Amino acid sequence: MVAMNVFRLLGDTSHLLSFIVMFWKLFTSKSVAGISLKTQLLYVIVFCFRYLDIFWNFLSIYNTIMKVIFISSSVAVVYVMKFGVPHKDTYSQEDDAFPIAYLVAPAALMGVAFNQDHESPFEMCWAFSIYLEAVAILPQLFMLQKQGGAESLTGHYILLLGLYRLFYILNWIYRYATEPHYMQLIVWISGTVQTALYLDFFYTYMKSKRERGIDAPIEIDSV
């Protein structure tokens, strides 16, 4: 049974809220402007590989529901971005130019190379998903740099993703302090790297909201 605590619940809540904000943007603005399709595709890969065990490993109803929501919501976002009308016509492929092969290939190699002691191929798939999630936000951040910022809902979405990872780090710290022999070096390192990638955005987000209000767009120096 996976241990539950307030930090994990806050992390899962932040993640669920990020999907709500994303779908709210998609279905109110009818636009995917400012959203990186490449980041969304990476999240589909992350959750599909991480939750392969949904077919044979039952831990709890809560755990299974979260797996279904994360996979289905990620796939739904990609579907709307690629095939939704008029959404697909608002996507900027030119600005979404980060080469994701540079993220997927190293994560796959690390998933294999650092987990050869595990007999199950699922362990390698799980490790690959952890490494890939750590850097999956990079195409989105790169896109924001190219466009010089983001409208308010996109900013809220990225903030919630960052909070999701921050609360999960606190969850790991709590579990390390309260559970004997709890130590997952892969998730500690990957989660820390991922949260660090959000730090500059956190600062920019808070500065924009403090100076211009909660609904103000996020301005970032363009590259």
UniProtKB/TrEMBL annotation:
Pfam families: ER_lumen_recept (PF00810). It is found in: Endoplasmic reticulum membrane. One of its GO terms (molecular function) is ER retention sequence binding. The keyword Endoplasmic reticulum applies. It is a multi-pass membrane protein. Keywords: Endoplasmic reticulum, ER-Golgi transport, Membrane, Protein transport, Receptor, Transmembrane, Transmembrane helix, Transport. InterPro entries: ER_ret_rcpt (IPR000133). It comes from the Eukaryota. The chain crosses the membrane at residues 6-28, 65-85, 126-144, 156-174, 186-205. One of its GO terms (cellular component) is endoplasmic reticulum membrane. GO terms for biological process: protein retention in ER lumen; protein transport; vesicle-mediated transport. PROSITE patterns: ER_LUMEN_RECEPTOR_1, ER_LUMEN_RECEPTOR_2. Belongs to the ERD2 family. This is ER lumen protein-retaining receptor. It comes from Emiliania huxleyi.
